[in-house]
Amino acid sequence: MRTDLCDRLGIEHPIVGFTPSEHVAAAISRAGGLGVLGAVRFNDPADLAAALDWMDKNTDGRPYGVDVVMPMKAPTEGSFGDLRSLVPPGHRDFVEKTLQSLGVPPLPAADDDGVLGWLHSVARAHVEVALEHRPALIANALGSPPADVIAQAHERGILVAALAGRVDHARRQVADGVDIVVAQGSEAGGHTGEIGSMVLLPEIVDAVGASVPVLGAGGIGSGRQLLAALSLGASGVWMGSTWLLTEEYALGLPNQTAVRRALLAASSSDTVRARIYSGKMARLVKSKWTEAWAAPDAPEPLPMPLQNLLVGEAHRRIAAADDPEVVAMPAGQIVGRINEIRPVADVIADLVAEADEALTRLNTLRPS
Amino acid sequence: MRTDLCDRLGIEHPIVGFTPSEHVAAAISRAGGLGVLGAVRFNDPADLAAALDWMDKNTDGRPYGVDVVMPMKAPTEGSFGDLRSLVPPGHRDFVEKTLQSLGVPPLPAADDDGVLGWLHSVARAHVEVALEHRPALIANALGSPPADVIAQAHERGILVAALAGRVDHARRQVADGVDIVVAQGSEAGGHTGEIGSMVLLPEIVDAVGASVPVLGAGGIGSGRQLLAALSLGASGVWMGSTWLLTEEYALGLPNQTAVRRALLAASSSDTVRARIYSGKMARLVKSKWTEAWAAPDAPEPLPMPLQNLLVGEAHRRIAAADDPEVVAMPAGQIVGRINEIRPVADVIADLVAEADEALTRLNTLRPS
């Protein structure tokens, strides 16, 4: 089923897929959705440029998007060393002690870089790289991007999307010039608020008015959920967790064996919201790592971007240790329904077919 | 729109409304839904009997339901005095100190009764009273009722429903003989789990199979949400918070001025999940009372039924004080969308009309 947003973005299905993998993003676009590449993992903007160059060549000319993590106002930002000095030693001790008790060995070679995409300067560089390519959409995970970024995108005919977990945030984004609001319910993986999709989505649709398309995010993984989002007034859906268990996801990303086993095993009850990943509230798959941070002796997480500097190396150590019981991985509650690894094209075909089937079923209901 | 469940329950619209008010319950049934009277507030089963007698005469012969709060296994239960002795003095001191600091005066006369409906013996008496009337449905807020209760209901042709917040609970309920599962997402008011409706509802629908009707609960307050629940595979919806702001709600219940003002003012962000109401996790409207329990100096809530014994008198003092900033009231996130007090019949008519309209809109989407 096509919505007006499909025409506006030049896509076949009202399905937008967020993923850190350019292989997954390209496959989503090739299958008729809009693949949106998450830029935050690219510490060196040249690596993002290379990934987008590759996408330009591997999307059959179809549109794609780029997602950055950019606060509207630049936070105080020092050099990497300055920032590291703000991390309290007690927090470092807790992380080291926890990793040791969980059997996570140190990395073979010293490796100091956290994920720098949380830094405003790096996110700005990501935007510049994106503008040199041909994205149909620039999305910002932290709400409205700065005004000059919105202006530059619009000059190039690129739509701007922002994620909102509350209706007041959505209203402000539209006032700032954002074109598409992603209404992200609490069910979602990664940064997420407290309001469930069932309540949030129609609330934001009504608040921003008919001229602003809204994507439903949080808890979407099947065609019935796609149809439910459209029932609630969305122009499409924004999905994230689903793509973590696609065949294309493994390509070009570091070892994901433990993460995939953890995600395949997780039920819808096996996620938790916490500030431990980035400093902002985010939903992660439950593991011994998230449990350690929930224990009474654990320190309060630090604000963004300090928390990621604190845990960045821990995340890489955890990834290298490859233990499914000790993972640090954002995922939504829909992870309970993803129980096999499939090609992206099959996922999209099933979404579309199930939504059509569900609509046919609704049309068989008799009037009351 | 009619589902098979409408035929099974003998109702026009797939809308089940839970409410502590017999006036609201009767109005829901008269308007073509199924009004379900919450029994927990009736400390004296004779009062429940009187309310059901009244409903028998004021529902135009249409079906209604009764909701009890009954654990499957009887908990250890002593006399009222024995139970009270299990409440730690430090908890009592915290409650008294908090009420004083919030300006909530003592009750004029000593009044010792908590809400006894949480006690298994009282819930059993509620069931007996219900069985002497003509409910179409007995629902249990705490999962499967005891086997003999299910058997007695079935002997009389009464359907049994249970609330489930997780898929494993739903599976167990069906194995126990429950006829209808209420899949209650985290958005819901009162006792509620962690999984959002968007994820929980199709998960439970698939787990219990096509022969067991599932009602979507949590976040339902409009026709679009009703249609979304049906899209997700539900046979209908179970709504609670919406009825708190109907004209009929004030009839026959104690003073609700402060509660209504608090609910009318609340946004979807103004609820909180906590164990402070009954000892089990429940969503309440945020107030200075819920904030006091979230403060670092607050004690951990006690298990059910002790927490209600601890706060029962506080709830009555708070109600008598009638301050909209200090309320102790279960409500779901949908409370943000309920901004006026309306007759029940208008609410139901709008639900049905908006659902029809949303389905018409879905049918205008072009194929992709």
Automatic annotation (TrEMBL), chains A, B:
<dbReference type="InterPro" id="IPR004136">
    <property type="entry name" value="NMO"/>
</dbReference>
<keyword id="KW-0285">Flavoprotein</keyword>
<keyword id="KW-0560">Oxidoreductase</keyword>
<keyword id="KW-0288">FMN</keyword>
<dbReference type="GO" id="GO:0018580">
    <property type="term" value="F:nitronate monooxygenase activity"/>
</dbReference>
<dbReference type="InterPro" id="IPR013785">
    <property type="entry name" value="Aldolase_TIM"/>
</dbReference>
<dbReference type="Pfam" id="PF03060">
    <property type="entry name" value="NMO"/>
</dbReference>
<protein>
    <submittedName>
        <fullName>Nitronate monooxygenase</fullName>
    </submittedName>
</protein>
<keyword id="KW-0503">Monooxygenase</keyword>
